Amino acid sequence: MVTIRYLSTDDKSLLVYEALSSRPRLDILDMLATRAMSVKEIAEALSFSSATVTIHIRKLEESGLIVCTHAPGKHGRQKLCRLAVESFQGGFRARTGNRRDALSCSIRIGHYTDYSVKPTCGLAMQSSFIGQLDDPRYFSDPQRFDADVLWFAEGYVEYRIPNYLLPGQRLTRIDISMELCSEAPGSNENWPSDISFELGGRQLGIWTCPGDFGDRRGLLNPDWWPDTNKTQYGLLKILSVTEDGSFIDGIKLSDTAIRDIQPLFGHDMPFRIAVRPDADNVGGLTLFGQGFGNYNQNIEVIFQVASP
């Protein structure tokens, strides 16, 4: 579960505000803060019909406040609901002087444009692993575009973030959210890894992930994904580059600020996630996308833009 979710005045945040503007939905969130519950259990606790609760659950799920999975029950399969967030932080975009806009994009895990990895390593899509495990050659396999999870012990993957800026516009902030963890043989929650981030060729900083999590099954993992001795989920982290520097979940990583990475018109921004061989903790990297781990998202990018 993500500890903090950033909210602003963009359309994605609007879904959250709409989901919260209902007493029954707030009651559901309070109940799920205690434990995961089925739709039937929630309906009985609220004295609502299952059909009514399903409508509320759909709204909460669309906003990203909860995640739902299907699990065996007493009378067949049941829909099990869990919280996906514990708290919020955020703010309003200043509008004095220049007009500010927000742009966004979603990058699938397999859509990297460059890589260099060492075993243990591999990729998987919703239906199966891609090629042979621990063979870096399959990171070039055409099927990798369908990958929604990847992992490696050392190296990097690099993505191209599209540059939607118009002439005269400038970036004022970038937020990049992703689910990730270390990569241990099997899994090991005490397996630190120094994961570094670069954007536009500039080093943003290093975050030390505490481990590779396999103590319980990931909420979204497909049925064929192994239950034991395999990474199950990661931590949802928000990497931000602002006018004051680079941060991860609000904790400063470096002084690299948004002015240092302003892209030229028509030029994309390379975004590299790496575990360097000279790091203090070479503990690998696992990246989760939609349908894997605990958060049903890809690498999500939000740009704050100022226009003349």
UniProtKB/TrEMBL annotation:
<dbReference type="InterPro" id="IPR036390">
    <property type="entry name" value="WH_DNA-bd_sf"/>
</dbReference>
<keyword id="KW-0804">Transcription</keyword>
<feature type="domain" description="HTH arsR-type">
    <location>
        <begin position="15"/>
        <end position="93"/>
    </location>
</feature>
<keyword id="KW-0805">Transcription regulation</keyword>
<dbReference type="InterPro" id="IPR051081">
    <property type="entry name" value="HTH_MetalResp_TranReg"/>
</dbReference>
<dbReference type="InterPro" id="IPR001845">
    <property type="entry name" value="HTH_ArsR_DNA-bd_dom"/>
</dbReference>
<keyword id="KW-0238">DNA-binding</keyword>
<dbReference type="Pfam" id="PF12840">
    <property type="entry name" value="HTH_20"/>
</dbReference>
<dbReference type="InterPro" id="IPR036388">
    <property type="entry name" value="WH-like_DNA-bd_sf"/>
</dbReference>
<dbReference type="InterPro" id="IPR011991">
    <property type="entry name" value="ArsR-like_HTH"/>
</dbReference>
<protein>
    <submittedName>
        <fullName>Helix-turn-helix domain-containing protein</fullName>
    </submittedName>
</protein>
